[in-house]
Amino acid sequence: MEAFLTGGQVSGVTNTGSGQSTDGADVLQVFAWDGAKPSFGWNFSGTQTGAQPLEAVLRGLTVKDPDIVSFCDGKFYMAAVYLATIGGIDRVVYEVQAYDPGVNGWVVVIAPTLVDNGSGLSCSSPNLDVDRKNGNAVITFAEGEVYVRALNIPAQTLYPISRVTFSSPGQQSSRQPDVAIFEDQASPGSSVVSVISVSEYTPSGPGGFVSLTLGQGKLADVQAGGTTPAIYYAGGSALYPLTDKLDWPRIAAPSAIYGRLDPADCLIVVRHNDNIGGGDEIHTLAKFSAASSSLIDHVISAPLLARTKGSQLPAVTYIGDGGFVAWQYDDSSNRLLNKNLDVVGTWVNWDGSSNLSGGNLQVANTQTFGAQFAPSVEGRNGATVYDGVLAWHDAAKADLAYKPLHWSTPQLRPARSSASAPLTPQDAEMTNGVGVYPNPAAAEATALVQLGATELAETVQVLDSRTGRQVATLPVAGLRDGVNRLSLPALPAGLYLLRVQTSQGVRVARFSYLP
User: What stretch(es) of the chain map to CATH 2.60.40.10?
Assistant: First the structure.
């Protein structure tokens, strides 16, 4: 079940951001959002929460499109970057604040400060990432071209600005950048900085393409700044016809080398639409150096391909050597879920492919009324643990919703169908017409029972697999021919049997439960 931050004080949101850090004992999670009152909120180890306007808002600026990170060196920090309207144009501004657990409050460390070139052009797409071992952050944004600028949070150092040169074949313009930093504990300056952007080539004659283009460079070069570009084309592009639409690319880097991973590896997510009736697809692209120098492309939203209207605003993070992808899905026409906006997602492997059997998707929001949208996600916190956090805007509750992500257990409810065709192929989880989805199971898992045309259900039981003792009974009233879905009750961690007795015999499926 998700938690909420403000008690109904959030509205008009178009974008959210999430970050987290730890001192080895406590974890600080921070969230940012725009809308009627752009703000940030926090959750300190589940014991203290709160929310307040961004400092720029308190100083009278109009703010939108925020991103946020957290860092801890014994003291907990948050750094936020956003667009602020100054002199009639959008400028890129950042601020840093320090958290005091004793009073559950914040102290401004760096007041709102301009980051961009001041060229007179409106800026867009400000994003940042941080190395949680050393406090080195990198901000990226578009100002006619794509730029990066490094920041050390505890040292309060803002480095010179640097232009990004993707140098992909025929590139003429780039937009919507995002940035990720590999956390190199041994040699921070050699950490790889990765920037993803949508690039376009428009020739005077026929042809042209739009591409998702990856640039990479060393953190030390980004910190040096100056006229020499610090980020160069990394040899990975995903090319599409110029008539296609690519939007909202996001990128994540790992926090350590987990066997197969390299410091230059990264996970990317983007919304793609062929603009000729094919609908929205959410693609994951992985740079996996051990396998290929090119980007490995997967359509991660495959279960939605027949009903893809409104898959937007994707987010991605590493957790361990895998990752998690989330996006908002418009179900208003498709009527597969709650007939409005929902936050869906899936666990992915190191190469960007789905980690869930059958390419299954999951739904983050347990609230089934109102719109749930604009997700953000963070899986790294500065420690080698598999804990993350997912956040989004719950319009019905007028709040910022958030919930934990754990690689070892999904912590999300499976997608369920309100139409004849299920959103996900849950039926594949059954053996002899009985099963549990997902398996391992967690809160709000589903028991699957398939009955024949003349078959009658008599009992559905959950048994302890070691002792055979009955621990739960599920209702059989209303079960009919076809696949029936029953809510599995909360259980202690362990191994269980789902036992179904019908007029034609007994069937059993084994499953594990990880609360």
Answer: 426-513
